[in-house]
Design brief:
β5 and β6 form a beta hairpin. α1 packs antiparallel against α4. The protein is built from 9 helices and 6 strands. 46% of the residues lie in helices and 12% in strands. It has a 6-stranded mixed sheet, with helices on both faces. By secondary structure, it is α/β, with parallel strands linked by helices. The site of uracil (URA) has 13 residues, from α3.
């Protein structure tokens, strides 16, 4: 499959799903089409709307620092959101807005085929990993789902920026990503060969 072409088709489809009249751009997400790790946030903010890119404001800077902390760059992973336009005044997206854009995320997951999906915040978690508890109960705990992928819920970096306790927790939860990747690689190697 030509993943870049398939992701562009998702972008074209997104443009037919405008949610807000005053949003300046569509923010489909960016990164490696072959990423092993997919990050899913909530919705673009002002900076993201201005640039048409996900996580480029203060929360994005913090995300990039945490990635660097585990030896990764933004270009190594794929970063996107549940809702791919900026809600007015950064309000929480409504359930029907989430429902309108969620199929696009599902297509991105199929195309990229990541091993790990990291959910940033409760909106992302409630869509991708429903019924496992609240984010304060399960943050940092990996879940293997029927599709074979590992789903890791984390606090949202924007929430952690304003709460020192959450920040430390997020940084330590974030380090689990490299442990999970190592485990998955080992699992792959240990599989009996044909
Ligand atoms: N917060 C999000 O959830 N997504 C972004 O892209 C930026 C900030």
């Amino acid at each position: 499959m030509d993943k870049t072409k398939a992701l562009n088709e998702v972008y074209e489809e997104l443009k037919t799903k405008r949610l807000y009249d005053d949003a300046k751009s569509f923010v489909p997400g960016e990164g490696s089409p072959n990423a092993e790790i997919l990050f899913v946030g909530e919705a673009p903010g002002q900076k993201e709307d201005e640039q048409g890119r996900p996580f480029v404001g203060a929360a994005g800077k913090f995300l990039a620092e945490m990635l660097e902390g585990i030896g990764l760059k933004r270009e190594d992973v794929f970063i996107t959101n549940i809702v791919k336009q900026r809600p007015p005044n950064n309000r929480d997206p409504l359930p029907e807005e989430i429902a309108a854009h969620f199929p696009l995320l599902q297509k991105q997951i199929e195309i990229i085929n990541p091993k790990i999906i990291v959910m940033l915040g409760r909106h992302s978690m409630s869509q991708l990993l429903p019924n496992v508890g609240t984010i304060s109960q399960v943050h940092g705990r990996p879940f293997r789902r029927a599709d074979g992928r590992v789903y890791l819920p984390l606090y949202h970096p924007a929430a952690a920026l304003y709460n020192a306790g959450l920040k430390d927790t997020l940084i330590s939860d974030f380090r689990k990503i490299s442990l999970i990747l190592k485990k998955l690689d080992k699992e792959q190697k240990d599989l009996p060969k044909e």
